[in-house]
Amino acid sequence: MKDISLSFESKVFLLMLLVLMMGLTMINLIFIMTINGQIEDNLRQEIRNYQILLKHNIPFDYPEYLKISKNEMDGKKYTLFEVDKPNFFYVKNSYFQERIKDKILLMVYWDFIILMVISLLYYFTVHRMILKEKRVRSSFEAILLIFSHKLRNYLSTQKINLELLKGLNNSAVSRIEESYNRLNTDISAMENYVRNINIASEKIEEINLNNLLKDILIFNKKLKIKVKTSDLMVKGNRYDLEFLLFILMDNINKYAKSFVYIRSGIYKHRNYLLFLNDIADKQSGGLGVGLSLGEILCRKSGFRMRWKKNRYFIVLITF
Fold this sequence. Notes:
Layout: H1 8-55, E1 66-69, E2 78-84, E3 87-92, H2 95-165, H3 171-195, E4 205-208, H4 209-216, E5 224-228, E6 233-236, H5 238-255, E7 256-267, E8 270-279, H6 289-301, E9 304-309, E10 312-318
Parallel strand pairs: 5-7
Antiparallel strand pairs: 1-3, 2-3, 4-6, 7-8, 8-10, 9-10
Helix pairs in contact: 1-2, 2-3, 3-5, 5-6
């Protein structure tokens, strides 16, 4: 038997209906108890009136749901309700059910109307807002893919130019080639993230941090990378965490001088991931866009990211 997979919106809608139905059920029970008490009070008042008539020997016709007897009766059709010796007042067994039945039908009718109105309000407000957000996200995805496609075309042209310039064998060509390779890697990562942004975008799963980090590590012959990690399991969205690690590793690859130290573990019952690297002798660093984007991804997944720059550059992520 296949598992039924519900979207986040459907789960919210069903939860809302469940809470609403529980609330209506409690209100209905209180209403039924109140009506039942009122019917009993009215019946007692009616019996008191009959008691007065009996004491004064005034003849009267009592209703079919009430029996007055000098002796105790069996309880097949009537139930003893009150005793005023020598008179026993019996009430028909179905008396209360018949009085409450109409009230219950009326409550069910109005409950159905309330549920229908709430469902329509949900559709015309919350659900339509969610659909609008999805359309905006799809449009944003299309724009990014178009932009990356244009960059791909530009890089294809530059690759041809590089092939023509390689014969010169100078440092300028090497720097151009290095920039080309980095930009090409960045665009590939961006395209992969954008294409997967709608696939299980809200899915939270257990992720092996060590395995994911091994897939993200960027080979750089200039850097000595030391990794000390354990098999930690963290909860999060795989695509967000994968893109976050790529951004951090790409940042290290651009600005580290000679070594990188990566460590993960548990401290005070919280999982952590630490990046430490020395800083290359460059006159100017980056604009901090990568770190800002990484911080946004961390906040989205409920993680915390901090960094510090002095002699070394340190990034700490706690899960």
